[in-house]
Amino acid sequence: MKNYIEEKQRQETFPWQRGKFHVDYNKVLTDFKVESCLENAPGDSLLDLACGDGMLTELFAKHFNTVIGVDASSKHLDAARVRVPSATFHECLIEDFASNQKFDSVFLLDLLEHVIDPSAVLSKAASFVKPGGRLIVHVPNSEAVNRKIAVLMGTLTSCDELSPFDIDIAGHRRSYNIDTLAQEISRTGLKLVKTGGIFYKMLSTPQIDWFLANGLWESGHGWGRTGEEKSKNWQAEFCRACYEYGKDHPRDCNVIYAVATF
What we know:
Rossmann fold; alpha/beta
């Protein structure tokens, strides 16, 4: 009980909310995270662990008949309930969530890097997956190309170093690459179906946030031919290209994922 209270209180202290930090980039990344999930998620029932402020849950709710979200932060859930009144939300740590219900899809999106015991959380999440269902896990990629560039620049000492933002704002405890994520999945006895990457991100998050807001999207962008298809949304084309390119270069992507089943 003491550990539960301490960890619950710890989660309440972190100010991170997807809808409040780096809004331009996180809106783009959110859309592609949802798209990637839907490409791999079966059925019409979803358990979203942990749902945070509901920014992703709101988009998932358009595609699933049953949506249940769980999060340890009361302030995050306050925002989620406003965003997604059709969903059911539970305030608790994942380790303490109890339900007899099984789900076609269970999502652990940007969670394993936060928790005390990733293996215990994976096993708990898997216990809610229906036979034939899937568990989908997203984590930030420590080997993303922007982090590799940062190491070469000297702003990070190594790719797996946690920044002050990671620790104090987001509450990260560890980092993953595709290999260590796959190993984490395998340790639980789950069957790894596939791994992949979401969004080729070459700049830091504040830099790409600025770029999306201030880039030369209207004309004269300098990336080849100009003056053609002036009506195109070049910002959207750039983001889509980063997502599609990332599918073939998952080890360089901002986010990596694993799909697992029994």
